[in-house]
Every structure is written in structure tokens, then in C-alpha cells.
Amino acid sequence: MLEIPEALTIACQINNSLRGKRIKQVITGFSPHKFAWYYGDPQNFDELLIGKTISGADAYGGLLEIKVESTGILFGDGVGLRFHDKDTKRVPKHQLLIEFEDDSALSASVQMYGGLGAFTEGELDNPYYIVAREKPSPLSNQFDESYFKQLISLPEVQKLSAKAFLATEQRIPGLGNGVLQDILYNAQIHPKKKINALAEVEKENLYKSIKETLAAMAVQGGRDTEKDIFGCSGGYKTKMSKNTAGKACLLCGSNIKKENYMGGSIYYCEGCQRI
Questions:
Q1: What are the structural domains, with CATH classification, of the chain?
Q2: Are 16 and 95 in contact (CB under 8 A)?
Q3: Rounded to two decimals, what is the model's pTM?
């Protein structure tokens, strides 16, 4: 799933490998998927994209936008992107395939759910896109301790769990259920612990962990549970994920547990992260 580290990694890869490529063909809806949502009308993508050249890419939270002259191509967190050179076999299922004049291509495949599409620059009114562009990234200087204190001091978040605070209502765009596992582990906070039960030192640790954990993930090319456009796993080895569930915590030796919570999985150390 695209979250902050992966969106940044893939934007960099597109800038390095796809910039300057000219689009010759666009295929939409090749593999119908009831949880694939399109930004804009797929029937208009040909007109929006064919003959235009990729000028770059940017990450906004967990969203990735590819700039194609005056047009944007947007991908949400549930979309897997894969680059194919002219000799590489295309993926069998995809919701969007962009082919270039040099016979290379970029495919987009929705996993469980996800949004993707094309739009004329300045005309997309999707609220998630707007908020992701407006709010500061946790990796920016604007996301400082003062900004974080305002977020965590809001009356409406006091009864939320740490997971709900971090990953809902677009409070921190791009910080989702994947990256929050290591953020909370590094801060030694249980995912179910309520915000109003956190001591001041725990809030300070949480802020530091958000900044430091996301920076480490981004620098290392994303998490080892996710893949980039070349099919390679990220270099950041997750501490709390499907890869470590059931194993011993490296800090205390306690068991790493997996539970279902708030419509997804949480991973935590029974010894380090107590409610």
C-alpha cells in the first residue's frame, strides 16, 4: 500500500526513469475491479494523455501524482505500480496501462481497493487530494513539535486510540496502518492506548518517532513489505509487520502479537507496548 515512504520513493524513481517519455497508448479497465475508483472519466484518458510527455512526479502524503504537461495522473494508496521495459511481459491484470513511444510501459493494478485517474491540472476537487496537498508532510520543517502538539491536543481526539489518532480523518495524510506499526513500537505506545492516557513524555516520544521512523523508511526506499515500480522490496526492515508477527521482540524478547483492530491488523510487542 502506498504510504508516505513508498510514495516518495516511487516519485523519485519516476523522475529518474520515466521523465521525458512520450505516451502513445492508454488502456483503462482491462481487468474490471469493483473497488477500483477512477478520478475523472476513463473514456477521456486518451484525449488527456496520448501524445503528451511525462515531466515529473510528486508525492502528497500517500498519493502519487505524475505530471504530464498540463495533466495529472493520480494514484492512491491501494494501487500497485510497475514499470515494464520493452522486453518485459506486462502484468496480466491491470486497471490502467500507459504505453510509451519507446515500447516501455507503466501499469497500475488495484489490490484490495484504490483510486487512480487522470485530470486537467487544477480541476480535481477530490477532498483527499486537496487535504494531502494542503497539510504539511511529517518529513517537512512545517511539521514541527508545535504543529504536532496542536493536533494531539484537539478535544475531539482525546478518546481516540493511538492508531485512530494517527491513521484516520486525514490528520496526517499518508500516515496509514502500515507505517504506524513501527512508529508506535519505536515510541513504546500500544496501538489501542487512548490519547488522553498518554503522559507528556509519551507524546514527545510519539512526535520524535513519527519524524525519525518515517525518515528512516523514506531514506531506505520504503518498507520491506512493499514493492517499488521495478518490483523490488523496500530496504527498510519492518519491526512490526506480517514479517515479524509471532517472533521475539529484539528489545525485550517478548512475543510480537497480531490482532484485528479497526478494520485492519495491528502488530505490537507485549512487553514494550503496554496499555
A1: 4-134 (3.20.190.10), 145-269 (1.10.8.50)
A2: no
A3: 0.95
Q: Pinpoint the alpha helices (H) of 118-179.
A: 127-134, 145-152, 162-167
Each residue's pLDDT tens digit, 63-95? 999 999 999 999 998 999 999 999 888 899 999
CB atoms within 10 A of CB 116: 24
- Per the structure block, which three cell numbers stand in for 48? 488527456
**Consecutive H or E run containing 97:** strand 96-100
**pLDDT tens digits, residue range 32-54?**
999 999 999 999 999 999 999 99
Q: In this structure, what is the dihedral angle of CA atoms 152, 156, 162, 163, given to the nearest 10 degrees?
A: -120
CA 133 to chain centre: 14
Cα–Cα distance between 9 and 3 in angstroms, integer? 10
Length of the chain: 275
CA distance 172 to 2: 14
C-alpha distances in Å from residue 70, one per residue of 15, 55, 66, 85, 248: 16, 10, 11, 25, 51
Give the orientation angle of helix 180-187 with respect to helix 200-219, to 10 degrees. 130
User: Which of 177, 77, 170 shows the shortest CA–CA distance to 132?
Assistant: 170
Tell me the three state secondary structure of residue 95: coil
**Residue labelled with grid coordinates 514493492:** 227
Instruction: Read off the pLDDT of each residue in 258-273 and give the average, rounded to a whole number.
Output: 96
Q: Measure the CA–CA gap between 166 and 162, rounded to whole angstroms.
A: 6
CA angle 35, 38, 39 (to 5 degrees): 140
Number of Cβ within a 10 Å radius of residue 82: 19
The whole-angstrom separation of Cα 177 and Cα 180 is 5
